[in-house]
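Practice problem: predict the structure.
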Amino acid sequence: MTIRRDFLIKAPLGLLAASTLARASGQTGPAAPPGAPPTFGATAAAGPEVSPATFAEAEKLMQVTLTPAQRAQAAGSWRVSMAALQERRTGPNKVSIGAEVAPATVWRPLLPGMPTSLLRQSARFSRSAPAAASLPARDEDIAFAPVTSLSRWIATRVLSAERLTTIYLARIARLDPKLRSVITVTAEHAIARARLADREIAAGKYRGPLHGIPYGVKDLLDTANIATTWGAEPLRNRVPAADSAVVARLNAAGAVLIAKLSLGALALNDIWFGGQTMNPWLLEEGASGSSAGPGAATAAGLVAFSIGSETGGSIVSPAMRCGVTGLRPTYGRVARTGAMTLCWSLDKLGPMTRGVEDAMLVLAAINGADGGDVASVDVPLHFEAGASVRGLKIGYFPHWMNEAPALDVDRAALEMAVKAGMQAVPVSLPDWPYQSLNTVLFAEAAAAFEDWAADGRFDQLKAQVADAWPNLLRQARFLSAADFVQADRLRRKVALEMARIFSSVDVLLVPSLRDEMLTISNFTGHPSLTLRTGTVAVQQARSDWAPDPANPAPTFATPRQVPHGVTLIGRLFDEGTLANAGLALERAAGVVRERPPGF
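Answer:
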């Protein structure tokens, strides 16, 4: 190494230039002496010719600046120093990596030094006391009943699982054509499962509160011998051989799969190969996404509950739009084995329901690790439906509550929390560029769908606008690897800031669509609970897509009343406290049982 360093320091520049040109042209130089180490910049030339002008243009993408001499040096050595690093993708020794192979680095939300007492406690779960309500006479009222009620009726056999299943199947057939929330109806499978549940319950084999309850899952969760399409045209006929971990756990709980629900293709927004999924409260606008089908079908009473997924807002946004309860668990709590991968370090699966306690009943059934998901962990779930919220510290960001997108409904929710006995605590975060974290999202997604970009499957998707995946993930190829690492380091800094905040509060209340917190909490892995607390008037349909002057959103001369709610953010793995705060707001708001007109 001493000889090599001496050579690099003393060798004439002309000799170095000649050596670089020889390597770039494919010529091989003299053999290295015995014992010489391998060196950077001495590989066989690979890739296309580049010039200083190539780097000058690339600088615009990277937002960096090189001098003319630096560009010349980089161009002269690129093919022997960096181009060969693309060999895994470009060949000759190509290696295809399936989405089931997770990155070697795994995000762990609990950083060193964070409290871990919740992880060591035994699980505690207690439901609310049985309600005195009798079985409604109308099928419509049964369909909209919460799981807390449905489960009691089924357990006491005043309602059969088969009757409940036929009620939902009939509603899907009659009402879903105007929503497009269902991709596949699993009627035969559902009736068979419902009859099995009835036989088991009659024989005294009651599996728990989800036994005999019909549900739907976002169509990115594998279901054995039932199509799982990811909402994407190329996968319309994809039929998995095995159930995903979540579906297997719901099966074990005795639940009845009745429908595979829509998602925006490859988990973006609300347009899939069958069209756009619409909001049952306002049929002129989309249901939002990407858990569009779970949001719309749950709001419209087509299923008792559903399972959605979130990477950057896909449970929160449709829960807000459709007026349902969306619970995004702590990252790692629910195993994703058998689910479509968008981003290994961000994807989460969670319940979408018509009430807070329903969401916790579902979470209890799907909670836990699985060997197929390296990020999943076994953490006990603690929830007591009757726990008091008096004295809970609820943090809020004062300036967020007084500017868009916050509305009077958001501010009223904070007042409700205080009246329920919670203590409002103002908190703050540094003014950092949180959007930079999405470098990780786009890079991981581009990696997950690398083959789709290469073989042209992206071109088959219905949505081809600039803000759809095909264009975004092609662009993501030009993100800097160094910036990816820096975004990952920023992620850790942000997680430490959230730890600081949660050292002084129990939950946070935020405007649901506040972009900073949607990004922050998804990257840190904190759980969130979105629930309806009021109503707002809109004069224009809302959209997940960038404005398109050629296709403006519909406007309304008479304002339309639609649901609106807030989002609570909880401590890591403390969904129980999060749900208790949510139950208090749900009771205070008094709007949870309202239904969309016409459904």
